[in-house]
Amino acid sequence: MKNFILSKTKSLILCFALISSITFAQTTHIVDNNTGTTPDFTDLQAAIDAATTGDIIYVQQSPTTYGTISIIDKGLTLIGRSHSDAGYKSIVGSISLSENSSNTTFRGLDISSINEGTQVAAGTIENIVIADCKVSSINFQQNNIKNNILIQGNVITSSLNLNGSDMGTTLITNNVFNSSTMNFSSPANTLFTNNIVRTTGGVISGNTTEILNISNSIFIANIDFIGSTNYEIPMNGNYQISNCLTYYYNGTSLTFATNSASVNVVQNTLLNTDPLFTSVNGTSSAPTSIAYGVFNAFEDDLTLQTGSPAIGAGSGNVDLGVFEGYNFKNFGTPNGYPSIKIDSYSATVPKNTNLTVTIKAKTN
Fold it and tell me: Who's near 176: CB < 8 A, 6+ residues apart?
């Protein structure tokens, strides 16, 4: 079964690589709602309405949200500065996708939710990328066809609902799920790999006829389930868990619950084993342990220490967790896009003298 997971991973990666080959004529638009700026647009929905398929919209950082996006009805790329870096984050409310929103990408945004609008019930949505974002919930739940959905490098804080009747190829990888509930109604073509899941009682629901494959992921818990000495992560439907790791920071055993489905398989998995993250929760008395009751997905260093049992423990001897094959960023600075940040500047200068400014520019 391990070989099956490896071959499925390769085919999924190839499928998603093809997304990047889809090209359109592109125009870049700047959206900035900060006072005193002169951007192309101050309103994000107005920029979306004016754009054409294939355009790129840069959403500048702002202390003010860009609000609810009533509909995206064309294939666009929306890029923010960061989802959590104080003073440098791009905040968006709920986003609704129409049946014409195929080939849309979201990066570096703080998003309340991404949803399918009711008008997609009979349409097809494909080639959707959600990467380097903080998202409360992702909801693909209309009874239409979905295909080539990539969810990568995000922090997801509430729920992931992939409940459409026809879910095609879906890759969920390199994400941190922070107290999230996950629902998969048609997981046969879904691969959940190299994620970190902080479980606080949220259910992982699959299907009684299709198998949900989970691999190369780390499951942790650090809250009080009163009276528990063995906490079971709630699991519904058929599942196969391979090459994963579980750890409960208060010493309680952390395992996966079985259910009445015909397939409940856990194999090649390190149960109740400290992953030895590099540095998590600076307030902890032990710098290599998450303090009981505390977890900060936006500040903890979730790379693996030398000697971590998670190194090489994945299928094909890859590392477990979010950094395998991806440059995961806690603050969500988008990978592959340039960013500029002013580190310091002179608060006041004498007349006719130079202002000293230190600027960092990099491509992530």
Answer: 154, 155, 156, 195, 196, 197, 198, 297, 302, 322, 328
Q: Per residue in 135-171, pLDDT tens?
A: 999 999 877 788 899 999 999 999 999 987 678 899 9
For 181, other C-beta atoms within 10 Å of its C-beta total: 18
- Which residues are registered as beta bridge partners of 140? 162
Whether 241 and 269 have beta carbons less than 8 Å apart is answered as: yes
Q: Is the pTM of the predicted complex or chain greater than 0.85?
A: yes
Domains contained in the chain, number: 1
343 assigned to some structural domain: no
Give CA–CA dist 198/130, Å, rounded: 20
Residue 179 covered by a domain:
yes
Residues 223, 228, 232, 236, CA torsion sign = negative
Residue 325 forms part of a structural domain: yes
- pLDDT, tens digit, 9 for 90 and up, residues 227-249: 566 888 999 999 999 999 999 88
Residue 197: C-alpha distances to residues 14, 78, 222 (Å): 25, 26, 11
Dist. CA 76–CA 54, nearest whole Å:
5
Token pair 């499925």 in the structure block, residue: 8
Tell me the residue range of the domain where 224 lies: 2-27+70-338
Q: What is the largest CA-CA distance in the chain?
A: 79
Closest CA to 140 of 176, 179, 104, 90: 104
Look at residue 347 in the predicted model and tell me its pLDDT: 63
Amino acid at residue number 210: E
Q: With beta carbons less than 8 A apart as the criterion, state whether 255 and 232 touch.
A: yes
Which phi and psi angles does 185 have, rounded to 5°? Answer: -85, -25
In this structure, are residues 66 and 34 in contact, taking their beta carbons and an 8 Å threshold?
no
311, part of any domain: yes
User: Is the distance from CB of 167 to CB of 189 less than 8 angstroms?
Assistant: yes
Calpha distance 350→353 (Å, rounded):
6
